[in-house]
User: What shape does this take?
Amino acid sequence: MQRLYRLPLTLFFFSFASQAFAFSPRSELEELIIAAAGSTVCSLIAIIVVLVKSNKSFLPRLLMALASPLLVFPVCMGGSMATSYLVKQASDVKKDQNTALRIQEETEAWQRNALRTAACNGDSASLTSELASDAHDQETKQRVLEDCILPRADAASLQAMLLDLRERNTGPRAHCAYLNPVLQSMDTSLLDVFAAQKLSLACPADTYSHTDDATPFAPTWWDVVNQQRNADTAKLLNTLRYLQAHGVDMKVAIDGRSLLSMAMESSKPELILFALDAGADPYLISKESSTLTPLETWTLQRFSFTDMGTYSEADRRSIQSRLREMTAKEADALTHKISERGGLDNAKDGGAGLLAYLIKSGASLHRMNSGGDGAFNAYTRLSPALQEVLNQLNDQQLQEFICPVPGKYDDGYAVYAQAIEAENKEIISFLKQRKMPETCPKMPRANNTSE
Assistant: This one.
């Protein structure tokens, strides 16, 4: 009987030694299931051993056998999970050591790489010899360009690399692999290497899919504008002027985007003025109806729309002098894009200046708030300045404003009634003061609310 007391201890150590519980890579849930299964097996073994080895009478022996899992199962389960944890910790430490060793070996091998050594030392003769040896793949050459040649602005080494690339790949855009990182460096002395070989400085952008025959394509210098526009503006402009002087078309537009679109997004007056002076179209319309045109972006910026850029008065005048005012159709289109950007409340003056401009430009009062998706709705905060703008409307105009024509998919949006439902006290008080009706007359449905 005394030997039976050794059973839980034996099974406990067995669980520590069980490879099935811990020595294979598994998820925590899988380990838990395996540990539970193993502990169940151990419990069954304990029941059998007690039944077979015990000298007790049948009933006490049966009760002991049935009770043994209460001790064996948790002991084995704990041993299994402890083993799993310890093995996993040891495995992770070993894996981290192997990773660190591999990184160190790769770093040391890279430091010893002959092509890298030649490029980083500015040894053009050795660089040319290494390139001719066919011992280095294109990925290595690209890394050498970015690690050594660009930081040193080594035009001679770049020329050797470019000649090697063009000898191995005669495609019309083979040089683009090197032009893209050179453009990102915004070092015009390196661009001279491409210009001297009469290579195009307008390669397809990395961020757009393209083929060699795709035309027109989004140019790689767009990537530079997007990624560097918040960096050194003077350096970026110097690069763009260099490209312009070497025949790169600054007016290119793809899917409603252009240099001016990106310049407007940057809120950099110098970049905007350069794009306008270079001939980028401020009235470009995207196929995507919700996308702002450059003129729409500028109009929101001009009237201090939040997060749309901050300009001095001199900058505003300078930019606006190169643009015409909005047409009624353009003003109409913008009114239905404002709600997607937070509504008039997002302007610093509560939208008073912007709303006054849209009305002055001829935006349809009948369609301005159609469906509650226009510039103004029942939840708009009616600031004193905005109230002053609305007070300039006569009764008929104000009624058109608060009773817009129904759109394609709505039965009409009554601003007054909706304001009551929304408990917008400012609008309710104003419309009550102007003696406007709470309900709107039934009006014919519009075919297109943006027309």
About this structure: The chain has a mean pLDDT of 84. The first strand starts at residue 253 and ends at 254.
